[in-house]
## 1
Amino acid sequence: MNIQVLLSEKISQAMILAGIPTGCAPQIRQSNKFQFGDYQVNGMMTIAKKLSQQAPRQLAEQVIQHLELDGIASKIEIAGPGFINIFLDRNWLATQVKWALSQPRLGVTVVESQTIVVDYSAPNVAKEMHVGHLRSTIIGDATVRALEFLGHKVIRANHIGDWGTQFGMLIAYLEKQQDEYHETITLAVLENFYRKAKYLYDQNIEFAERARTYVVKLQSGDEYCRTMWEKMVDITINQNQQIYDRLNVTLTRKDVMGESFYNDMLPGIVADLRAKGLAVTNEGATVVFLEEFQNKEGRSMGVIIQKKNGGYLYTTTDIACAKYRYEKLHANRVLYYIDSRQHQHFQQVLTIVRKAGYVPESVPLEHHAFGMMLGKDGHPFKTRSGDTIKLADLLDEAHDRALTLVREKNPKMSEAELQQLAEVIGISALKYSDLSKNRTTDYIFDWNKMLSFEGNTAPYIQYAYTRMLSIFRKAGDGIDDINGPLTITEENEAQLATRLLQFEEIITQVACVGTPHVMCSYLYDLACLFSSFYEHCPIIRAEDVATRQSRLQLVLLTAKTLKQGMDILGLKTIEYM
Ligand code: ARG
C-alpha cells in the first residue's frame, strides 16, 4: 500500500482531464501539519507558471473537478496560492489497516527486482576497525535490508583493504616474530606489528629490502608469501566478524571482495585505457588526464593509474571493481558507502569508468557519502589521549553504560538477563543515534542523549514497543484472537492509522536514497502518535467490546510496524525493559 503513488495516479488522471499536458508532475507529498490534511499537492503553482495562462488556484479548481477520490478522501480543499489538501476518509483508512494487518509483509508491495551491489564497511587488513568504520557499516546495512525487504537482489560487497606494499613489511616482520610468538595472533597484536614493521622499514635497509622483495613475491603468487598474507587476512576477517555479529550487521565472510580480488584485472585495465587514448605516460607513470577536474594550476587533473615502479593504485582497483560489478555481477545499480572525504576519488573513478565505457550511464554508480562522528568539542571523535577509538571499545562502552541503566531500573533481574538486555539496549542506542542523523553531515557523538528514554532514541522506541506488548498481556487475548470490525472515529486513531499506512513510502525512500534517518524519524513519529492515542483512547477499558477489539488491532499493527521498521534498521526490539 503506497498512498502517495495511489493519489499521484489519481491526480495525474484528473490533470489530463483538466487539459494539463502530460509530463507535468503533481508533486504530491505527505503533509507535515494535520490542518493541511494528510497529503498535499504542490505542483499547481509550477504548472500554472509553465502554462502562463491561468492562476494556480483556478487550475487547482479544475483538477479537483475531475478528481475521482470517492471513498478514499473525505475532504479536498484548495489552500493558499493553489495547494490542494487531501483529507483521507476514515472508513477507507480502517479498511486499509485491516488489510495491512492480514498481510505478512504488512501490505508492503514487492517491487520489480533489480540486482543492486552495495559496497560498505570495507575496513583494512591488519588493523582493527575503528569509529570511522561504524557509519559505512551500519548505514550500508540498513539500506541493504530496506532494498531486500522491497524484493531486490542485493549483493553485499565488503571492499576490504587487503592489498598493497604494507604487506611486504608485515610478512617480513611476521617472519621475524614467528619463533617468539606461538600463541594465536590477535588483530591488536597484528596492528602493533604493523607499527613496528613500519618503524623497522624506515630504519633498517636490510629489512626494507626484504620487505620490498616480499611485495614482489606476493604479487607474483609466491606460495610462502601468499600463505602469510592469507593468515593476516584471516585473522582480520574473523575478528571483524565478531564486531558485525555484535552490531547485528548482515555481512559475512562470503561478502568479502577485497582489493586483491581485482588484482589480475589491473594490467588489462591499464592497457585498455591506453589503447582507448585515455591514459598516457607522464614522467614514467601512467596517467589519465581529466578536464572535468582542475589541478592547482588550473589545468586538467592527472589521475595516476600505474606508478613508475609498476605499482597500481586505489583508483585503478576501483575502476576494475566497477567494471566487474557491471559485467560479471550484472548490477543494475551500485551504491558506495564511502566517507565524504573520498568524494573526489569517487568522482574520478566514475568519470574514467564512464569515458572508457565500462559501465553504461543507465547503471547508476552512486556515492552515498557520509560525514564524520565528532566529539563534544566539534573535532573528530578521539580517545582522551588523542588516539582513534576502536570500534570494539565503543561497543563495550555502550554495553557498560546500558548495563548501569538497566541495573538501576531492574534491581531484581538476574545478572545473565541484565547482561543480555544491556547488550541489546546499548548497541541499539549506539546504532540508532548514528542512523537517525542525516548521513550527509557530521554529527556530535553524545552518550547521554542516545541512552535517554526521551526523544528520538532507540530506548524510547523500544520502550514504546514494550508498552504495546504489555497491553496485549493485560488484555489477556492471544494476538490471533484480536479480530472483529475495525472502525476509526477519533482523531488520534485516524492520525495513527494514516502514519501506519505510510510504511511503504518510507521504506521506498530509504531504499532510493540510502537515508535510514527517514525510517528513524518515522518510527519515532509512530511511537509519539501511539502515545497520544493511548492517552486519549482507552483500549482495555474502552466503552464497549467492539471498540476495544478495534483499538487492539490498531495497537497490533503499530507493534508489528515498529518491529519491522526496527528490523530494517538492523535493530532489535525487546519484550520488557
Ligand atoms: N578501505 C577503504 C577505507 O578504509 C574504503 C573502501 C571503500 N570502497 C571502495 N570501493 N573504495 O577507507
## 2
Amino acid sequence: MSTMSVHGMWSSRLAFILAATGSAVGLGNIWRFPYTAGEYGGGAFVLIYLICVAGIGIPIMMAEIMLGRRGRQSPVNTMRSLAGQEGAHGAWQLLGWMGIVSGLLILSFYSVIAGWTMAYVTRAFGGQFGGIDAAGAESMFGALVSDPERLLAWHTIFMVMTVMVVARGVASGLEKAVRFLMPALFVLLIGMVLYAAQAGDFQAALAYLFKPDFAKLGEHAGEAILSAMGQAFFSLSLGMGAIMIYGSYLNSSASIGRNAVIIASLDTTVALLAGLAIFPIVFANGLSPDSGPGLIFQTLPIAFGQMAGGQLVGVVFFVLLVFAAWTSAISLLEPVVTWLVENRGFSRVRATVIAGSAVWLLGIACLLSLNVWAGFTIFGKGILDLFDYVTANVLLPLGGVLIAVFAGWIMRRASSRDELAMGETSIAYGAWRLLIRYVAPICVVIVLLNAIGLI
Ligand code: PFF
C-alpha cells in the first residue's frame, strides 16, 4: 500500500481540513439549504437535516476519508484495489463510476448557479440594489435567468476558473485560497446575521428554523425527509468520491474521526448562519420562504440595498460566495480528472480540459432549461432542477449506502480499525461501526424506498 498519492499530498492536516471544508461549504449551504428548508416549511426539515448530518453524514464522511487514504488513487481505482485487498468483487469500482457521473451532473448545474452569483457581484458593484424592494429584486432575478447569453457567459467563466485550478493540481493553489476564504466567509456571515437580527424579523426566523412543526410536513413527510437527507449528503460533499479523493492526499497519521467532526460542524454552522441571515429578511419583507432556487437572490439584495455600506457588503458577500462555490467545484471535478490521468495516461491539464468541456456542455442544457427550453420537463422538472434533485436525493445517498456497506461489511474489522487508528475497545470505534453497518445504510434505504412508494 502506498503512503503517497501520485497526484500530490496536502502539506499539513490543517490543509486537509481547509480543503475538505472548502469542498463542503459552498452553494449548498448558502443557496440550497435556505431554499430547500423554505420549501419544506422550516423547523421540522432543519431538525431532520441535523439528525442526518450527525447520524449518517459524519460516519459516512469518516468512511470516505478512510477508503480514500487507504487506496490513494482516484475513487474508481481505489475501490478496485481495496476490493482486491479485502477479497471482494471488482464490481465495487462501479461505486467510483457512479461518483464520476454524479460529479459531472452536479458540477454542470452548480456552475450555472455560481454564474448567477458572479452576475450578482457586478449588480452589487454597480449599486443596483440601492433601495430595491421585493418586486424589484424579483424582476432583477427574473431578468437574469431568462437571458441565456448572459447565463452562458457566466457559466463559461466559472468553468474556466475551475479548470484552471484543477489543471494545476488541487494541493497547490487550493490551500492558500481556502485559508483566507473560510474565515472571511464566516466573519461576513456573522455580520449579516447581526444585521438581520436588528433589521429583519429575527424572532419569526428563529421560530421558523428551530421550532419543528411536523404537522406542516403533512402528506409530504416522506419527500421532506428524503430532501433533508439529500441536503446533508450534498452539503457535506458525500457519496460521490470528492471527500474520498481528498482523503487520498491525507497524511497517514491524521485522525480521521476528529477531522470529520470538525468539517461537518463547520459546514453545518455555515448553513445555519445562512438561514439566520436570510429568513429574518424574508419575513420582514413579506416574501415567501418557499420561493425556490431564487430565494437568496431575491432577498439579500433587499438587505444590501437598505443597510449602511450595503454596496460594499453586497460585493464582498457575493465575491465570497463565488469563492466558496469555486472551492466546491474543484472537488467535483477532481475524481474524474484523477481517473483520466491514471487510466488514460493523460496529462493533468489535458484530463481537466476534457472533463471540464463535458461539464460545460451539460451546463448549457441546464441553463437553457431556465428559459428557451422551459417547456421541456421530465417528471415535471426542467433539466437543471432534475439534475439537482436526482443527484442530491438519489445518486449521492445511493453512493453513501455503498460506501457504508463496503466500509462496514466488506472491509475487515482489522483494516478499518487500523486506518481509523481507534483501539479495539474504543467506544468511538464501536459507535462508528454500529452507525456505518446498520444505522446509516438502513435509514438511507428506508428513506429511498419510501420516496419511490415501495414502503
Ligand atoms: N458541498 C458542496 C456545497 O455544499 O455547495 C457541493 C458539493 C461538492 C456536493 C462536492 C458534492 C460534492 F461531491
